[in-house]
Write a structure and sequence with these properties.
By secondary structure, this protein is mainly alpha-helical. It has a domain of about 55 residues. About 40% of the residues lie in helices and about 10% in strands. It has a two-stranded antiparallel sheet. Strand 1 and strand 2 form a beta hairpin. The protein starts with 19 loop residues before the first strand and ends with a helix.
């Protein structure tokens, strides 16, 4: 059996969106031709795929995801926002991404508690 290669989501020559034109059964070799759209996951970056895997392993618990990936909450939140956009979520319209809002609130909290 041929070595599996990571599926490309965009054309390496022009950057255009790729489609799948043939599917082959690994067991019997049956081939199905057509024009098949790639799933949304195919367009995610390695970082985003790593995040999604961690997100699923931790049942969506952001603290656990943050700990597993060893990233700050604002960074984890930004990745989640990018993944959500890739799956068709509407971009935030309030002008302040959640990660920035969280960071600002955290600083305000620390300042009011005399820790900053």
């Amino acid at each position: 059996m041929a070595k599996e290669v990571k599926m490309l989501a965009s054309c390496p020559c022009c950057g255009g969106k790729l489609t799948v034109s043939e599917l082959t059964c690994a067991e019997c070799g049956t081939k199905i031709s057509g024009n098949f759209a790639l799933p949304a996951f195919a367009g995610l970056s390695e970082e985003a795929m790593h995040f999604v895997a961690g997100f699923m392993r931790n049942s969506g618990n952001m603290r656990d995801v943050q700990a597993e990936l060893r990233l700050s909450y604002p960074t984890v939140r930004k990745i989640l926002d990018r993944v959500a956009l890739a799956f068709g979520a509407a971009p935030q319209t309030d002008g302040e991404p959640d990660a920035e809002r969280w960071t600002r609130r955290s600083k305000c909290s620390k300042r009011s508690e005399g820790r900053l």
